[in-house]
Write the C-alpha cells for this entry.
Amino acid sequence: MTGTARLAAVQIVAVRWTLADDNAEHLARGVTADSRYDAAVADAEHGFALLEHGLRQLLEQH
C-alpha cells in the first residue's frame, strides 16, 4: 500500500470508528436506534463530507 493510500485508509477507518463509537455511546445511554437515526445520518454525512472536501472548511469557519 502506498503512503497516500494508507493515509486515506486510516482517515476512512477513523471516521467510521468514531461514528460507530458515538452511536454505541448513545445506545448505551438508552437512546433508541430509531430516535438516533436522523442525527446518526447527519453525523455520517458531515464526517464523510470532511473526508471528501478536507478540513479547510473548518478553518474557514473560525
Q: What stands out?
A: The longest helix spans residues 3-28. DSSP finds three helices and no strands in the chain. The chain has one domain: 3-61.
